[in-house]
Amino acid sequence: MNIDNQHKFKGLDRSERKQKIINIAADLFHKKGYRSTSLDHISNELGITKAALYHYFSSKKEILSIIYIQSLQNIFKNTRKILKANIPPDKKLKLLIHNHVKNIIIHPINMMSVFFTEENQLPEKEFRKIQEEKNKYNLMMETIIKEGISLGLFKKMDSKLLSFSILGMCNWIYKWHKPNSLYFSPDQIADHFITLMETGYLKNNKQENYLDLASLEMAPKKSKSDTKRQIYCKLRSQCKTLMKLIDELEQ
After folding, report:
1. Helix-then-strand count for the chain, H and E
2. In angstroms, rounded to a whole number, what is the distance separating the alpha carbons of residues 114 and 67?
3. Superfamily for domain range 66-199
4. How would residue 161 be classed by pLDDT, with cut points 50, 70 and 90?
5. To 10 degrees, the CA torsion angle through 157, 160, 161, 163?
């Protein structure tokens, strides 16, 4: 039994002790899995007896249920405010992605890992409730996307499929992100995801032409003629397309 943790635990008030138990349980469920974690593991980590643990929770399932309740509270904490904000839908979607990455997935990453992996351990009634709440959240994102499409800010596409794409990309963070990571900050991850969604990963024509011209200057002499020919053909094709569009507009 961890004596140091026992002293720290005893120094907390009852509500803080309950939250400490929940946090430790979430961490152990995340690392070991719900089935492989016992109340003995949780009590040992806290430096208290299993009997003392029963003063706060009646079972491991009760702790798991509270983890889901707190996770849902956290998911909707800022989301409703974003949805009601008097700003364009493209701004709302950016805020929603930032909030999802930073305040839903990363900061409580152990809890969200449990949230995504252990729902089958819940009683049937609670399991159905979790699915309903997930659908509500998905619908909030779909609503923003539909509004953006109707205003001509987003391309016409299936709002549900786009919502699933964004959430799938963001939710998977719990699988690879490490707390206190030195590689990518939450803001960097959110900004990267937003850029990827807005611009994709292919270069546009202007970028391609710029890079082609730059590479021409750097190319060896023996390949300059070939490179010039490629750029000439590409520009000629683009000019033909542009002239065709101009002719159509003049008619």
Report:
1. 14, 0
2. 8
3. Tetracycline Repressor, domain 2 (1.10.357.10)
4. very high
5. 100
